[in-house]
Fold this protein.
Amino acid sequence: MIEAQGLSKRYGNKIAVDDLSFSVRPGLVTGFLGPNGAGKTTTIRMILGLDRPTAGSVTVHGQPYAALYSAMREVGALLDARAAHGGRSARAHLRCLAQTNGIPRRRVEEVIGIVGLTEVAGKRAKGFSLGMNQRLGIAAALLGDPDVLVLDEPVNGLDPEGIRWIRLLVKSLAAEGRTVLVSSHLMSEMEHTADHLIVIGRGKLIADCPMAEFIAGATTQATVVRTPEPQRLAAVVTAAGGSLERVSAEDKIIVRGLPVEQVGELAQADGIVLHSLTPARASLEEAFMDLTADSVEYQAETEGRS
Amino acid sequence: MTTAAVPASPARARAVPAASRRPGLPGTLRSELTKIGSVRSTYWTLVAQAVASIAWAVLLCAATASHWAAASARSRAQFNAAGASLGGQVVLGELIIVVLGALVITSEYSTGMISTSLAVMPRRGLLYAAKAIVFAAVSFTISLVTSFAAFCTGQAILAGQHIGATLGQPGVLRAVLLSAAIVTVFGLLAYGTGAVIRHTAGAITAILAVIFVIPALAQALPASWYSDVARWLPGAGALGPIARSAPPLSGHLFSAWGEFGVFSGYALVMLVLGAWSFSRRDA
């Protein structure tokens, strides 16, 4: 269980995290989403006691991080793929971490096996690929067999097989009753993994809801209609309380606010010819983009339309 | 207040035995020993320090021995056998050890390791102390061996002219021990500075500037002023008394223990500033 109350972080006059309150519950995978620069990493660093909040507080199991009895047994964290000394071997890296909390040596070998680094465990991390470093970071997070896992962008740099592995790992960790917080800037990574979503943008909380609710909200009712009589269709749709939008000079129209069945029935009642009638769903990625569009930190300038 | 609000942990098989007591200094010391022993920079700085110290002892003692017959009465009178064999350890050893002292902490920042280190051991004062203790112990052990080796090598060379010293003579053992200890003191000065500056090149540059530039600038002062400040200057002549078994040549310098105290004071100030920075600032 992680609980944030009015968590804020300010650097000079730039506000990185702005009055965030949320809780991350056990037994679920909680996706922590937001565009780059939204404040995800800063929030995670405050959870781990690395950065001090300007205001508010965050606790793990009801305690500030520094007060945890045995930090590694309670929280496992993956921060940055490059959070190991490159001159040290993977095994030595994990050993020095394990020793701080009195974790037995055999557990080091165990996690090396779990993340699949057995063959390179004696090699210096300097020569590791981003994906291998990511696995080393996950091994470190798993060392203490913790109840809470906080993973910042864990699939960064992983190949498709690695991404699948992370998804399964994260789900199984949550299924064992652990609290799992996974950050990402891509909705697609969360779509099949997260049970719950916390979405932030420009440091502010935008959404905090179950994945199912987010999906339901994202699938606004829209119907794509092709008709040679757009004006007539427009008239009946508007009269029935729907709204519509011409997509192009073609005969394609998007109707919103009415169920697809009703659109068909209205057309039939007035004898309007329809060439096609298709229910459309916005993808989750689009829904996420819509939600965070106003809060993107670094946006490429769109070309002026002529 | 905060009653045990820890929710009932899910009943699952634990892969790691529960902590018998709260992780603290013993485990963190072991961890830091693993850290310092598992990177190459430790070995090459310590080996470089030993080689440079002993090489300088060989060079200086051999040169002295070969010119002894022709040496003036004044230079014979000023000669100190312990100082000849230990001067390299004090001056060169100090320059090399500051690299390791700084690296022990700045490499944590340059590699991002600091986040991992603090996430597993969030008691910052304890981590800072453990790093300093392990560095000091490793550095002092190697310096002590080097110090004795440089002394013995130097004396063996000087023995040809029957001008060597023995450990039993007054002040000699003190010179050998303080020559090892002063190296560690400078290492700790670098460690504290590294904790404040958090950048390897920046920290090393800052310390070398203090050791080289300040004494060099001070020499531009009027002679009477320089005499007043010389004993306080890190590096340069003020290190001389530490390596010698006899009292300092210059009356403007403190005794060996006095100069050792001055530099230890500087190191202590930087250690305290580093501790404050390490525990208060965002990682």
Summary: The mean pLDDT of chain A is 88.
